[in-house]
Amino acid sequence: MTPVTSFNGKHAAVFGLGGSGFVTAQALVAGGARVTVWDDNEHAREKARAAGLRIENLALADWRNFASLVLSPGVPLTHPSPHWTVLKARQAGVEIIGDIELFCRERQKIAPGSPFVAITGTNGKSTTTALIAHLFRSFGFAVEVGGNIGSPILALAPPAQECVHVIECSSFQIALAPSLNPSVGVLLNITPDHLDRHGTMENYAAIKAKLVENADLAVIGIDDGLTSGIAGELMKAGRKTVCVSVTNTMIEDGIVLDGGRLMRRSGGRSTRIAVLAGIASLRGEHNGQNAAAAIAALGPRGFDLERVAQGLRSFPGLPHRLEEVGRKGKVLFINDSKATNADAAEKALRSFDKMFWIVGGRAKEGGIEPLRALFGKVVKAYLIGEASEVFVQTIGDSFPYESCGTLEGAVPAAARDALASQLAEPVVLLSPACASFDQFPDFEKRGDRFRELVEALLAGKKSG
């Protein structure tokens, strides 16, 4: 844990006692703060009470007593409307911050300049965070990983010069961290997302930009107009910036993906860094961007090509993201349950030539219509969940399909057809392009069930 000693003697209100909020309250207490906590959920309050935290209904509190409101990132700050705690804090002139901000202040107090890599982006941030951590470990560094992935940031060891903190940051967390100033800030991409919480794309992009604006080194993917504009503004301001691209191999300076090879561009000249072909955990063009950003985040260590190549080859990847589950004969089974929308599923469809596609769940706006240009890659689809009828209308006669209802029906059907096909390496791909909530509590449980079914099939068993 990181005790928040910068709040020693101060009185903080904490609202939201989920994973990060609960840890935040404990870290503040450990640092000497007086802490008052509240959550609308009674079970969360009971857990906090059992841990010895001070419970008080903040709706009835005197807000003049608080130095800060520490807000859970899941609580609306601005849209669709500010939470009632936000309104009370503003009325009393109380600052509103989050756990990332508390870490930044503690870093400034006890270990200024300590290695701190912060990563954001609409897509790819979890894989990039895990890869950066893996690469730093391969160079022999002690590494702490957390934030929006894994452990809350304040559950990690305190900032220190000999330890690299690699932290994934959501837009919600960034909005609550006004003094965010990592040694390396990584911004991968910006596409429409969370507009119900940010109102407009302009607001969303401005929040994402804050992660790199005060970084000692900004690493920015420039393959969309918003991030390209952010990179241009930083370079114009004289900020140290490394651009990465998978669509423009001829940028003047930066790291690019060119035919499966990562190349460093300097003064218009190219030097090969590594070859991604054959690295199963880094399949697809999108993982080329992730790998390029991770190498750039290493700073000067990224020029040690042998270690970089070894680190890339040994990266195990993350579950549910183009995860290779196993093989049966010539058939490869891929778990991409994290693909909860068409944009994410597109990356999976582009990563393979021909596939037997398990798709469906609770449809997002637009469904799978944005994937129409890739329908030619689908040998057959196996429809599951609520979206089945709508997807049948979208598919039409583009390719054969089977309405299976559940994964229990889809996996054996897809395996049967893939094994019977004449393809050299048919792929059974779970890339649902949908939320999981019609049948599973989250995409992880959906992916876990797919893995169970495949493993049972490989073992010749029936899975219950």
Characterise this structure.
The chain folds into 3 domains: 5-97, Rossmann fold (3-Layer(aba) Sandwich); 101-313, Mur-like, catalytic domain (UDP-N-acetylmuramoyl-L-alanine:D-glutamate ligase); 323-458, Mur ligase, C-terminal domain (Protein-Tyrosine Phosphatase, Chain A), CATH 3.90.190. The chain has helices spanning 19-30, 42-50, 84-92, 99-110, 125-138, 171-175, 195-198, 201-213, 225-236, 285-297, 305-313, 342-350, 388-395, 407-420, 443-458; strands at 11-15, 34-38, 54-55, 68-71, 95-97, 116-120, 142-147, 163-168, 184-187, 217-221, 241-245, 254-258, 261-266, 269-275, 323-328, 331-335, 355-360, 362-363, 378-384, 401-405, 427-430, 434-435. A hairpin with a 2-residue loop joins strand 15 and strand 16 (331-335). With 464 residues, it is an alpha/beta fold. Helices cover 34% and strands 23% of the residues. Helix 5 (125-138) packs across helix 10 (285-297), helix 5 packs across helix 11 (305-313) and helix 14 packs across helix 15 (443-458).
Task: Provide a quick synopsis of the model.
The protein has 464 residues and is α/β, with parallel strands linked by helices.
| Major pleated sheet | 9 strands, mixed
Shape: globular
Instruction: Give the radius of gyration.
Output: 23 Å
Tell me how many strands there are: 22
What fold name stands as the CATH topology of the largest domain? UDP-N-acetylmuramoyl-L-alanine:D-glutamate ligase
How are strands sequenced across the largest beta sheet?
A: 7-8-6-9-10-11-12-13-14
Helicity level: 25-40%
Q: Mean of the pLDDT scores?
A: 96
Low-confidence stretches: none
| Whole-number tally of structural domains | 3
Q: Quickly name the level 1 CATH class of the largest domain.
A: Alpha Beta
Distance between the termini: 40 Å
Count of separate DSSP helical elements: 15
- Proportion of strand residues: 15-25%
Looking at the overall shape, the CATH architecture of the largest domain is 3-Layer(aba) Sandwich
Name the structural class.
Answer: alpha/beta
Instruction: Give the full name of the CATH homologous superfamily of the largest domain.
Output: Mur-like, catalytic domain
